[in-house]
Amino acid sequence: MSGSRHRQSRAVSRPSPVSSCFMARLVAIEGLDGAGKNTITRALTAEFAARGATVGSLAFPRYGRSIHADLAAEALHGAHGDTASSVYSMGLLFALDRADARDEIGVLLGGHDVVLLDRYAASSAAYSAARLGEGADGGAAAWVADLEFGRFRLPVPDLQVYLEVPAAVAASRTRSREAADASRARDAYERDGDLQERTGAVYRGLAASGWVSPWYVHADGDSPAELAEAIAAS
């Protein structure tokens, strides 16, 4: 794995003055369901704020705010006929959700030093490719890149962060989340352990190849301060 981690080795001592490093930096946080994307986003927000940087964030899919995201969620819980069985139909719904948020992302970039996205286009690339048995260099990932960054003209992230968490650990977290909150019932993707394993492999391929833009792999247990340093240096 060391060859695909795209990490920079450095000692984390004195925090970088983030506010002087950023010019509307867009950072996408990626990973399996249960990888801890929301947790690391909140930790990074606090870390950057402590360094004097203004931080904006947005989570995808935008459930409850986007008809496309809600349709996708309903499909993954058994609604809308055979929609969920179509890789490209699901990818298109998630892409339309992000396309509708393009102006919102622009507003966030115009008002903050750094904008953190909890999932972005790489999620569709990873899950779509995994469902089709493809790798990071296959047709599905290329289709997502062309659709979202080409036709929909979504802003390209300055850095994409893959949270590298074992699929078994991520699955345990989604089960615990479901048990604690009835409204967090796992969807078809979250219940499919084999899919999660394959998706992790595609994510590692996307990071190793620098899909669309630079990547950084953040291992489970690494500190948010270390990740903030990597973002500031990117």
From TrEMBL:
Coiled-coil features, chain-numbered ranges: none
Superkingdom: Bacteria
GO molecular function, one term: kinase activity
EC number, UniProt record: 2.7.4.9
Keywords associated with the record: ATP-binding, Kinase, Nucleotide biosynthesis, Nucleotide-binding, Transferase
Gene3D superfamilies from the UniProt entry: P-loop containing nucleotide triphosphate hydrolases
Keyword Nucleotide-binding included in the entry's annotation: yes
Enzyme class: transferase
Residue span, Thymidylate kinase-like domain: 29-185
Family statement drawn from the similarity comment of this UniProt entry: Belongs to the thymidylate kinase family.
Name under which the protein is recorded: Thymidylate kinase
Lineage of source species: Bacteria, Bacillati, Actinomycetota, Actinomycetes, Mycobacteriales
